[in-house]
Write a structure and sequence with these properties.
Blueprint (H helix, E strand, L loop, with lengths): L1 H14 L22 E6 L14 H7 L7 E3 L6 E3 L2 E6 L5 E6 L12 H12 L13 E2 L2 E2 L1 E6 L2 E5 L7 H4 L8 H4 L30 E7 L3 E6 L18 E6 L3 H9 L5 E3 L5 H9 L4 E6 L10 E4 L6 H7 L2 H9 L3 H7 L5 E3 L15 H4 L5 H10 L20 E7 L2 H16 L3 E7 L1 H9 L5 E4 L11 H4 L27 H15 L3 H18 L2 E3 L1 E3 L1 E6 L2 E2 L1 E4 L2 E5 L6 E2 L1
Parallel strand pairs: 1-12, 17-18, 17-19
Antiparallel strand pairs: 2-3, 4-5, 5-9, 6-7, 8-9, 10-11, 11-12, 13-22, 14-22, 15-19, 15-20, 16-21, 23-26, 24-25
Helix pairs in contact: 1-2, 9-12, 16-17
């Protein structure tokens, strides 16, 4: 988990842009900044490559997001598309063509950036099936690949098989490579050769980008040093070419405890904290320690909040019928003590989890807060009573219509927080006459079990995305990861089985279809607002809570902000400087 959040942090450092032109927003640097200095960051492991299309390894991305740019960035808090190498774009009326107007910038070696670099990257890397980490799944819409055309040296056009609302957001993952450097290195007769370009033994002066930094030094298994790119294209209102700092030193520290120790001694400038460490470190800060500690509303959707769900295809016919009752699932939400979980499991450092869109997200619908059911065992009992679930044999456990005790196997992972939440929930539902048999499985096998439908109740958390459409496979009925009602999908063809969907599932299915083929963000938001309201009312998933983002940084670092309770808003290549 800490490795993931460190990747999130460096991505936030690299992705944010608040101005369409070269000049960054004034509020980021209210006073004329001091130039120079260095920032030290921990890296969870040594990069195995500097080629983002030839690896899945997190440390490579942690470094290279500072070196390379995409056509489109994502604004960090609200996760909406922002201009990057494409300074603007035009979308056709039918939503099937997007023309990108490229920014007039230079690579770090001084060579001009052009449409040829975009077309080269798409052909040999992003849309090359032989590239290990290609972007083909992201650039396949309705079963067909997006087509690309060069219009002129500074303009490219994407031709979509059909309108696709999240298209711009998907491009934030596609970093652009330099044709003039890499084209001679590719074996055109063996396109898998692209995976062996920019390996870690490549001379660092041969790795060029359009990002704020360039690689200055790599010491195997020890450190990666980035230096300021003199050709970076952003400036501040005083005319200073960004970034302000001269270097980022990535220090390879695989052990999280060692990272924490080095943060406390000032050898590492930023750290992602565990909730259990927050009170101690915050106390040290208030006592004069040279670092700042804060907890903020989470802005990254991954992982999604833990969700409790029910197998609507449960093998036991009584459980299957009961799990499909809206009031049963509502009763279970009344039995979930989120506040106790936030207090005891997360040391108060968590928030309610949305459904599952976070409050900081553009697509969030605040109406769910009026629908969400608070902890109330009396109301839970009332709903169970109305469903005819009574303790007929007076043993403290309600009985099903057959007379069997209402006992359910509750499956979750072996993660400590998951186990603690499961224990708290099982204690509360026992008070209203339901007995849960807790079963803990390793993360490596639990998903296989869930997708096979071999469970009754479960609690899990998925990787999520800021745009709901990019996770339709999870949240849309019949999706490949819609595991709590797998009969909504034909196992042979993978196509939806509409006759097996409940009425509200049919509506959710249509909402995702409309959200996908609509390009207008505001129109799309209406569809996802309705989806969230249905989820909050029908509770196919009871979302528990989402841990807060807990960070620490050395006080010698300036221009670190907390925006509207979210954060941190940190701009390594725009506005961080050393005081």
């Amino acid at each position: 988990m800490k490795k993931f959040f460190m990747l999130l942090f460096v991505m936030i450092l690299a992705f944010i842009m608040f101005a369409e032109d070269f000049v960054v927003a004034d509020w980021l640097t209210p006073e004329k900044p001091k130039m120079g200095g260095e920032v030290n960051l921990a890296l969870s492991g040594a990069p195995d490559s500097f080629n983002l299309y030839g690896t899945f390894f997190t440390p490579a991305f942690s470094v290279m997001v500072h070196v390379l740019n995409p056509l489109i960035d994502l604004q960090a808090v609200y996760q909406q598309p922002e201009p990057a190498l494409a300074e603007s774009w035009d979308i056709s009326e039918d939503g099937k063509e997007v023309i990108f107007h490229l920014r007039d910038v230079k690579w770090s070696d001084g060579h001009p950036f052009s449409a040829d670099d975009v077309m080269f990257t798409l052909k040999y890397f992003a849309m090359n099936e032989k590239a290990i980490n290609n972007a083909i799944p992201r650039l396949t819409i309705g079963g067909e690949l997006v087509k690309w055309e060069k219009i002129d040296d500074m303009t490219v056009k994407a031709i979509l098989p059909e309108p696709f609302g999240p298209f711009l957001m998907t491009l934030s993952h596609v970093k652009i490579f330099p044709e003039h450097v890499l084209e001679p290195l590719i074996d055109k007769n063996d396109l898998s050769s692209v995976n062996f370009i920019w390996t870690t033994n490549t001379p660092v002066n041969q790795i060029v980008g359009t990002g704020p930094f360039m690689i200055e030094q790599y010491v195997t298994d020890q450190k990666v040093v980035l230096k300021k790119n003199p050709n970076y294209w952003k400036v501040d209102k005083w005319g200073n070419r960004l970034p302000y700092i001269e270097r980022i030193n990535f220090i390879v520290i695989p052990d999280a405890e060692v990272t924490m120790a080095k943060f406390m001694t000032g050898e590492v400038d930023f750290a992602v904290l565990d909730p259990k460490d927050y009170p101690t470190l915050k106390s040290k800060e208030l006592s004069g320690a040279p670092f700042t500690i804060f907890a903020a509303e989470p802005v990254n959707p991954t992982p999604s909040p833990f969700h409790i769900t029910f197998n609507l295809d449960a093998k036991d016919p009584e459980l299957r019928k009961l799990f499909r009752e809206d009031d049963f699932r509502r009763a279970m939400e009344y039995a979930l003590d989120r506040d106790r979980i936030i207090e005891e499991v997360y040391n108060t450092l968590a928030v309610y989890g949305g459904t599952p869109t976070l409050p900081s997200n553009f697509f969030y619908n605040p109406k769910i807060e009026e629908i969400r059911r608070p902890y109330d065992l009396d109301k839970a009992s009332e709903l169970l009573d109305k469903l005819g679930l009574k303790d007929t044999d007076k043993d403290g456990i309600r009985n099903l219509p057959s007379g069997k005790n209402f006992e359910v196997v509750f499956l979750t992972t072996t993660a400590q927080q998951a186990q603690e939440i499961a224990y708290i929930f099982s204690e509360d539902v026992k008070k209203i006459g339901i007995k849960l048999h807790l079963q803990f499985l390793d993360t490596s096998v639990i998903m296989e079990t869930l997708l096979a439908g071999n469970f009754e109740m479960s609690m899990y958390a998925f990787g999520n995305q800021p745009d709901p459409q990019l996770r339709k496979e999870i949240w849309q009925p019949s999706g490949p990861l819609y595991y709590n009602h797998i009969s909504t999908k034909d196992p042979k063809t993978g196509k939806p089985v509409f006759e097996n969907m409940l009425d509200w599932e049919l509506e959710v299915y249509e909402l995702f279809e409309k959200g996908q083929t609509t390009m207008d963000p505001q129109e799309r938001k209406k569809y996802y607002d309705r989806w969230q309201e249905i989820y909050a009312d029908k509770v196919p998933y009871i979302f528990v809570c989402k841990p807060m983002d807990i960070w620490g940084w050395n006080k010698r670092i300036g221009n670190v902000y907390q925006l509207n309770g979210n954060g941190p808003v940190v701009y390594s290549y725009q506005t961080i400087f050393v005081k």
